[in-house]
Every structure is written in structure tokens, then in C-alpha cells.
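Q: How would the C-alpha cells look for this protein?
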Amino acid sequence: MASGTTVEVTEVTFETEVAKSAAPVLVDFWAPWCGPCRMVGPILEEVAADNGGKVKVAKVNVDENPGLAQRFGVRGIPTLVFFKGGAEVDRVVGAAPKAQIQQRLDRLIG
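A: Here is the predicted structure in C-alpha cell form.
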């Protein structure tokens, strides 16, 4: 279950961590060289802490996992993809403020 911290996800662990997760999952497609990604990272850590146990926040490094980026049609980063029941239900492309991210999560939780 979600723990209140972000979890790194790879092509190997995606199925277990995201697709089969009982909790809704927010997946951050990012890369270390991406400035906006580095801005969103701390926000996602806060969101994970604020929602511990209700949602899982996962990070996918697109440089290390290009297959996942391709599978989900990620063309720009950061891309935040929201999953519920293993299916994509929402998406935000670009850096988003904490309030917008939380509002979208609240829809999944509620």
C-alpha cells in the first residue's frame, strides 16, 4: 500500500507498483536534467506525505525506462499520469502547482 513517500518505478516493477496497486497511483514521468521536473519533485514528496495510505506516488525516469514513456505516449516532461484500478484516468503535462495535483487526487480518492 502507499507509504507516504515516492517510489521509483521501472519497466520491471511497473505492473506490480502501478497496474496492480489497490490504491490510486500518481506516476511522475521525469528526467534528472529537466528543470521543471526538479521543481515538481519536492511538491510530489509533499503530496505523498499528505496522502500517505490513500494514494501511491511513483516516479519513472524516462531516460532509464524509455519503454514506459513510449507505452504511455509521454512526449514532454514532466508528465503526471493518474491511474485508478490500473487504468489511466487523468493526465497533466508540465509543471503543476500542488493545489492542482491535490485536486485531481481528491477526485480519485473520493
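The two ends are 17 Å apart (CA to CA).

The mean pLDDT is 94.

Upvote if useful.
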